[in-house]
Amino acid sequence: MDFSFGFDDFATELTSLEVRKTRKYDRIFRITPGGSVDTKPIIWHDKVYFGSTDSNIYCIDANTGKELWRFKINGITCDSTPIIVDNILYIPSFDTYLYAINAINGKLVWKFKTGGEMVTTPIIYNNSIIFGSRDGYVYTVDSTNGKEVWRFKTGDCVASAPSV
């Protein structure tokens, strides 16, 4: 599927999300969330997941465009890509939390607080989530319970994704 983001006025608000078939370019569906989509959407099990500047995480049926659930957070998501491992969606936020949300029902599994906003895409390695924060640390937390495993102090904010 090709994702096309249509903007009426290239300011800060997303006016639509349009999904088209790859070859015919027929519109499958179009949705209008309440804010800009500043995360990279991902598709998993025929569902589209993304964060928005309206402080919601969305799960949309990729075939119909129907909203399946939304999860309210206390800040925006920005410049990151959510990841899904073992039915859990992990997404960082500007409200200083990394969220672990059940990807099927949209319920909170756990959240982990850092000292700064997060704009990086987390990765999973050996049952740990690794990510950076603008507080100058790279964190590793246990993916099952959100408990900190270790942190490493860098020289300044961390604005790039880790890699394994």
Keywords:
164 residues; mainly beta; Lipocalin; 4-stranded antiparallel sheet; 0% helix; globular; disordered N terminus
* Topology, number of strands: 15
User: How is the main sheet built?
Assistant: 4 strands, antiparallel
CATH fold-type name: Lipocalin
Low-confidence stretches: 1-12
Could you spell the SSE succession in H and E letters?
EEEEEEEEEEEEEEE
Taken together, the total number of domains comes to 1
CATH architectural category = Beta Barrel
Summarize the structure.
The chain is an all-beta fold. The protein is built from no helices and 15 strands.
How would the blueprint of this fold be written?
Elements: E1 2-6, E2 16-20, E3 27-31, E4 42-44, E5 47-51, E6 56-61, E7 67-72, E8 83-85, E9 88-92, E10 97-102, E11 108-113, E12 123-125, E13 128-132, E14 137-142, E15 148-153
Antiparallel strand pairs: 1-2, 2-3, 4-5, 5-6, 6-7, 8-9, 9-10, 10-11, 12-13, 13-14, 14-15
